[in-house]
Specification:
Blueprint: H1 3-8, H2 19-30, H3 32-38, H4 44-50, H5 61-84, H6 86-106, H7 110-138, H8 141-172, H9 176-196, H10 211-222, H11 225-255, H12 262-287, H13 289-312, H14 318-344, H15 351-374, H16 382-402
Helix pairs in contact: 2-7, 2-8, 3-8, 5-6, 5-7, 5-15, 6-7, 6-9, 7-15, 8-12, 8-14, 10-15, 11-14, 11-15, 11-16, 12-13, 12-14, 13-14, 13-16, 15-16
Amino acid sequence: MSDVNADDWVSAGHRPMGFPEFVIVIASIMALNPLAMDMMLPALPNIGAAFNIPVANHLQLVLSTFLIGFGAGQFIMGPLSDRFGRRPVLLGGMAVYAVASVLAVAAPSFETLLLARALQGFGTSATRVIATSIVRDCYVGRRMASVMSLAMMIFIAVPVIAPSFGQAVLLVTQWRGIFVVLMLYGLLALAWSVWRLPETLPESERRSLAPADVLAAYWQTVTNRQTIGYALAAGSVMGALFAYVFSAQQVFTGIYHLGHYFPLAFAAIAAGTAVAGFLNAKLVGRLGMRVISHGALTLYTVVAGVMLLTETLGMLPLALFMALSALMMFSFGMMVANFTALAMEPQGHIAGTASSLYGSITTLIGIAVGTAIGQSFDGTLLPFSTGFFLSTLAALAIVLVVEKGRLFKPHHRPIV
């Protein structure tokens, strides 16, 4: 995007920041979540050895408890931000994240570590909800989708490098050093937000925290066909992605015997999502959210079917698995920002609460599906490929119902 274009896109809601800085700040606070997730992947065997965890599948709890805190926290953060504004809730969540990182560094037991991980996830729930709400405060429609795509392109680059970064930390220190790095990054993002990020929700648009009002906002969110439909679909496709992340270390080191090269393979595959974010930001204004996301969901379904078929036939070597996984990541990247924008489009006046409920629904469904698939790992890719295919079919069916069978066709106004 040229400087002229960037200036044209500046919203008064986030001044004095210009458009490029706004996108980078949003991406940096959103990146707290994937950084805390994916830096841990190379350290799972070390954590298992430190706490004498004999069952490898149990180490997936280091990831799933983080996501449980992340999913549950979003129920709270949205209504709070609609009442008190975006800044105080965001800064408070980031402070919780920093404190939880300190607890993880000092954790004397596996149970304490899991508590710290849940608190980290709870803290990052504020960053995800508030980032989405701030974007919705400042932009709407295809512009919102483009801003989200640009932010996603930057923050999705984090999972590409995070496992390699975690592996690098392990070369010079123990696994606890990863939490030191996470704490330092959180403090840096917190300082930048304190210094530059303005409040984007005017006093006149703030909502009451009275239970009746909060429940009314939740009811309005879940009864909107477009919002709840795309939340359920996003949760289904996210389940396959979480299952991939939960079992990636076991797949690459246990099935394909990559050892310390695992972070490189993970990075190569995750790069597809960053590419998708860049393309989506360029194309969504011209083609629209539905054309792109529905096409990506169709590709996601085809990839899932091919992976299940080849694994069933015993014909899924490393090169093919990596190619299919990269396509999975690419199609997910073309879906996620557009699904979010489509779900949030009808909810501008309750953006915080709607973002919070949307995030909770998608994350908790993703955790449930991803954990079920991940805990079924049996030394083969059959449980993952089966779960991937079934969850993708569910997402496609949901979108078909939401759109009343009219895929790829834009609407003049949101579906209700």
